[in-house]
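#onboarding

Welcome to the new folks! Below is a worked example of what a typical request in this channel looks like: someone posts a single protein sequence, and someone else replies with the predicted structure as tokens. Don't worry about understanding the tokens yet, we'll cover that in week two.

Example request:
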Amino acid sequence: MPLTEFSKQVGDALLRAFPQFGAFAHVGPGLEIRFPHPGAATELLITTAGEEISIFLGSDHRHLGMCRHWPIEKQLARAQELISGILSGARTTGQEFEISGPLDR
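Example response:
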């Protein structure tokens, strides 16, 4: 199944911001990036299934699809902020991650 325009935009933006994801990106239900997290025993999963940006690490997750009233640029900026925090040492406890601050700023 080909990617939707939304998934293409998200994929292009995330692969520009995080080129290390390139080898881990594939088409599933939407775009899927399954990246081994350097500080946890699980992978970081980013998906655009359901026309929303979802970010998973172990049993914890964030959905930015609830922000559909936001322009895609704002959704992408928030996703990139969350992903950067996760990759740069946001506290990881077991298979959960913590990001300080509200998700809807």
